[in-house]
């Protein structure tokens, strides 16, 4: 939506909602500043310029605030009245009060009347602001009623809007669990923009008749409205347009509770496809019924079944006669030495501690009560059919899924640079592993993701060898540690065209937050599974498939190009949607460490998997799970449903602000180059042609296009910075510069990059601090260069050249030795056999490669085969796995690494490899 203001600057285009909340906040503060100057200004010429600037800002803010409950439309009419009367001192006081109310969020707790400009009212705002600072965040005041906003879509006059708003205000009661205010919009387009720019909206009441077109130019909605004809919509019935609006609101923000108010045949309307409405009201229905229905719907999402049960349990007096001395805090409250533990944690964590087998709560292993209900709510929130809590991390979640689905000798296609838990999971399951190579980013010592063409080519090879029936699962990481995100739907669709019953396991450890943002959501596993399931059931897809199949059958099925050079479509009569996702909830949403979830969308779960899944879950889950982790998962789910859209939106905004400064600041650009889309995704995988999401003139206006079309995209909340120009390697920069000097913690580095990740807890202040640190470091590198002698400068230049240009090519997976290859015609290996063969010491020996001994053996014609996993940190994935043949490229890469942590490698001994005798007739362990 483009703002029709006299001047245009970056980010005044309201339609690009990624930065709308920052635009809103910054514009209010700028307006307050201008008014403060104006009231002190005596020079007439300058005053005219300021008055014009204030006019522009008020116009801009009026458009933004049209979609928020506070300040209301009536409030804005009051602001304009003061402005047009020239009462600038009064306007200055009112705006200051308004800004304080927005900052302190006092409007959530009490009515703010802007016409009250007395000192008492201002003192209340100041007190609210101070309380916010004391608490850290207003939401931490648990005694306050949670606040939300109700969107009403109806073509009302200004007077009618006030009547409706007042009617709902009059419904409030002190005993209500929640408090809410009303936002009214007049059109289909305005409703969509409201739910995009206003995260406070939690419920929507679609009433009566409303036009399609907004009075604003909503160009940003073109992606969402593509294929819709304004003319067709204008001729739709009231019910048809309401149902279409409801479905689009659900796609953008599925958590919003929706209600329909109809003036027509309510029974006939109820018989239509109205799956996204909680309830239909006839227009005569009184406000009190609507009020209570809305509150009940909000309460249904706000509940935390297990956390609530745990809190109630902690209040009960119980006698403890089971094997947990710390339960009820008994072992520490009576201690003369351990009391400081209570001082640190507080008493509640101990009062809520109990044995899982003692009764009183629920069992994670076989839930029947509040844990079962909490998991059902999680399935609703994350869009799955079933969800399961895991209290010992996503490493365990991955192993549970693999064990539940994969039998010994089943073939699993897996990206080689995935998390190590998957590789060990293959060992435990006895799977035959077929590794897939990701595209390399040699300039930055990191891998991207596995191209779809590579996956299809591998599946096709198994099809032609007659072994496709043995291929059970495709396992991929979405998104990768570095932020590369798959086009999940396309991968699934084309793979299912080759093998209709293929199971997908998407490791979304770093992507749990993605389901709560409309741009990210379509690239998640659960959303893609749901979308494809309903797509394949439709008659329109069957017609589309039949047309495609008729053309496909004219091509040569033995020609690789037939399968690889076009988009494939699965047979709707054969396809089965079998999709699993694992989430590290603690990594990107609110949860205690090791809190993770498994989400399932599998048509065959009840018939084929439920029993084996339960056994796998029992195998890997402790009989003494941490109830505090379970409770945090329950609360984290609730928070994601109630304010996930807002939090993820803010996360993206902070990341974009960081990227923007790194793109444009001259000194930062000299030493720190933020990698953009084209740096991390080769052109062949960018159908949109978008190289960067940011443009200095038009701002952030290309992200949606890339995310809608490209095979791979970069998650902008993961900011990878190339630091080669500093002459400092990634590990040193992380430890000596960021952590030791400034206390900044990061997770990942490569030889010449560092990764900064924003999350839902990242604030604009945190970004400002990071930028301040980077500027200080850039100045330090600048001074170092200026003050260095000629020989010192030469050394720095050599270090810079080495980090930027002397990077070894990343090695692809070589191959499994024939001793561990069940079939010589296909690439899979028996990793379990190799792993356990190494348990007998006589089967292995050590060979050093730093002295050339291992290389000499290779030159003599020996196949040197790894007997263990070799995992350097970074990059943090196996460079070698048991049974893999070692080649020169792998050794070159290991020799070029300048990291100190390499699991599975002992420098004084070398690499552990199989003896030649052990490879003649390996016995499975």
TrEMBL record:
Superkingdom per UniProt: Bacteria
Pfam families noted in UniProt: OKR_DC_1, OKR_DC_1_C
Cofactors, names only: pyridoxal 5'-phosphate
GO molecular function, a single term: carboxy-lyase activity
Keywords tagged on the record: Aminotransferase, Decarboxylase, Lyase, Pyridoxal phosphate, Transferase
InterPro entries named in the record: LL-DAP_aminotransferase, Orn/Lys/Arg_deCO2ase_major_dom, Prn/Lys/Arg_de-COase_C, PyrdxlP-dep_Trfase, PyrdxlP-dep_Trfase_major
Keyword Transferase among UniProt keywords: yes
Alphabetized SUPFAM superfamilies for the sequence: PLP-dependent transferases
The Orn/Lys/Arg decarboxylases family 1 pyridoxal-P attachment site domain, residue ranges: 304-528, 580-764
Signal peptide: none
Domain Orn/Lys/Arg decarboxylase C-terminal: 860-899
Similarity comment text for this entry: Belongs to the Orn/Lys/Arg decarboxylase class-I family.
Protein name according to UniProt: Ornithine decarboxylase
Protein species of origin: Vreelandella salicampi
């Amino acid at each position: 939506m483009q703002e029709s203001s006299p001047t245009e600057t970056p980010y005044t285009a309201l339609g690009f909602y990624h930065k709308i909340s920052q635009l809103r906040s910054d514009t209010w503060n700028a307006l307050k500043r201008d008014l403060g100057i104006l009231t002190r200004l005596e020079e007439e010429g300058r005053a005219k310029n300021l008055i014009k600037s204030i006019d522009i800002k008020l116009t801009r803010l009026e458009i933004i605030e049209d979609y928020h409950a506070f300040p209301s439309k009536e409030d804005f009419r009051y602001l304009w009245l003061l402005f047009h009367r020239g009462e600038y001192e009064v306007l200055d006081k009112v705006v200051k009060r308004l800004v304080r109310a927005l900052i302190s969020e006092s409007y959530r707790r009490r009515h703010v009347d802007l016409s009250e400009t007395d000192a008492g009212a201002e003192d209340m705002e100041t007190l609210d602001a101070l309380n916010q600072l004391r608490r850290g965040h207003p939401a931490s005041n648990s005694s306050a009623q949670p606040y939300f906003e109700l969107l009403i879509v109806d073509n009302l006059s200004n007077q009618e809007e006030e009547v409706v708003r007042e009617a709902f205000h009059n419904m409030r009661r002190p005993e209500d669990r929640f408090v809410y205010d009303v936002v009214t919009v007049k059109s289909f387009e305005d409703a969509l923009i409201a739910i995009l720019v206003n995260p406070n909206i939690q419920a929507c009441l679609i009433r009566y008749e409303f036009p399609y077109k907004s009075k604003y130019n909503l160009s940003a909605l073109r992606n969402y409205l593509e294929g819709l004809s304004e003319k067709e919509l204008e001729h739709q019935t009231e019910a048809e347009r309401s149902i279409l609006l409801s479905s689009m609101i659900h796609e953008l923000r599925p958590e919003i509770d929706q209600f329909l108010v109809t003036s027509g045949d309510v029974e006939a309307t109820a018989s239509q496809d109205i799956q996204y409405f909680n309830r239909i009201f006839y227009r005569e229905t009184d406000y009190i019924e609507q009020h209570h229905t809305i509150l009940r719907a909000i309460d249904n999402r706000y509940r935390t079944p297990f956390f609530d049960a745990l809190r109630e349990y902690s209040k009960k007096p119980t006698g403890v006669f089971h094997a947990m001395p710390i339960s009820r805090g008994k072992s520490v409250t009576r201690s003369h030495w351990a009391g400081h533990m209570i001082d640190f944690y507080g008493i509640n964590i101990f009062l809520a501690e109990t044995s899982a087998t003692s009764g009183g709560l629920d069992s994670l292993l076989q839930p029947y009560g509040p844990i079962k209900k909490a998991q059902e709510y999680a399935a609703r929130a994350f869009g799955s059919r079933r969800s399961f809590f895991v209290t010992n991390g996503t490493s365990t979640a991955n192993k549970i899924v693999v064990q539940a689905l994969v039998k010994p000798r089943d073939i699993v296609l897996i990206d080689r640079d995935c998390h190590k838990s998957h590789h060990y999971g293959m060992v435990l399951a006895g799977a035959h592993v077929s590794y897939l190579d990701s595209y390399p980013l040699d300039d930055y010592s990191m891998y991207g993701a596995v191209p779809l063409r590579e996956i299809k080519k591998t599946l096709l090879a198994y099809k032609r060898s007659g072994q496709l029936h043995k291929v059970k699962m495709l396992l991929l990481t979405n998104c990768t540690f570095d932020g590369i995100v798959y086009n999940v739907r396309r991968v699934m669709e084309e793979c299912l065209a080759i093998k209709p019953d293929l199971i997908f396991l998407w490791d979304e450890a770093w992507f749990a937050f993605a389901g709560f943002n409309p741009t990210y959501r379509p690239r998640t596993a659960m959303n893609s599974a749901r979308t494809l399931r309903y797509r394949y059931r439709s008659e329109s897809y069957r017609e589309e498939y039949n047309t495609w199949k008729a053309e496909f059958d004219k091509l040569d099925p033995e020609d690789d190009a037939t399968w690889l050079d076009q988009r494939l479509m699965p047979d709707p009569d054969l396809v089965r949607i079998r999709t699993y996702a694992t989430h590290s909830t603690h990594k990107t949403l609110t949860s205690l460490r090791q809190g993770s979830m498994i989400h399932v969308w599998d048509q065959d779960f009840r018939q084929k998997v439920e029993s084996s899944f339960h056994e796998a879950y029992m195998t890997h889950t402790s009989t003494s799970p941490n109830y505090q982790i379970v409770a945090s998962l329950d609360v984290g789910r609730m928070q994601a449903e109630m304010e996930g859209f807002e939090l993820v939106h803010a996360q993206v905004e902070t990341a974009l602000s960081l990227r923007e400064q790194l793109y444009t600041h001259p000194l930062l650009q000299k030493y720190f180059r933020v990698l953009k889309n084209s740096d991390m995704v080769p052109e062949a995988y960018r159908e949109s042609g978008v190289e960067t999401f940011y443009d200095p003139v038009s701002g952030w206006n290309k992200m949606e296009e890339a995310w809608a079309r490209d095979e791979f995209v970069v998650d902008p909340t993961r900011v990878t910075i190339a630091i080669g120009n500093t002459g400092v390697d990634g590990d040193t920069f992380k430890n000596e510069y960021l952590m030791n000097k400034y206390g900044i913690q990061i997770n990942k580095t490569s030889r010449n990059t560092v990764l900064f990740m924003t999350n839902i807890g990242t604030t604009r202040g945190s970004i400002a601090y990071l930028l301040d640190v980077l500027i200080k470091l850039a100045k330090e590198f600048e001074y170092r260069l200026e003050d260095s002698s000629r020989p010192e400068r030469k050394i720095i230049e050599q270090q810079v050249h080495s980090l930027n240009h002397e990077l070894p090519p990343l090695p692809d997976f070589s191959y499994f030795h024939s001793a561990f290859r069940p079939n010589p015609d296909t690439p899979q290996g028996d990793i379990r056999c190799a792993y356990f063969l190494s348990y007998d010491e006589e089967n292995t020996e050590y060979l050093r490669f730093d002295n050339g001994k291992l290389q000499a053996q290779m030159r003599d014609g020996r196949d040197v085969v790894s007997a263990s996993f070799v995992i350097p940190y970074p990059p943090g994935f196996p460079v070698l796995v048991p049974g893999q043949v070692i080649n020169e490229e792998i050794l070159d890469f290991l020799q070029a690494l300048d990291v100190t942590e390499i699991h599975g490698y002992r420098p004084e001994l070398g690499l552990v490899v199989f003896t030649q005798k052990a490879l003649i007739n390996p016995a499975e362990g």
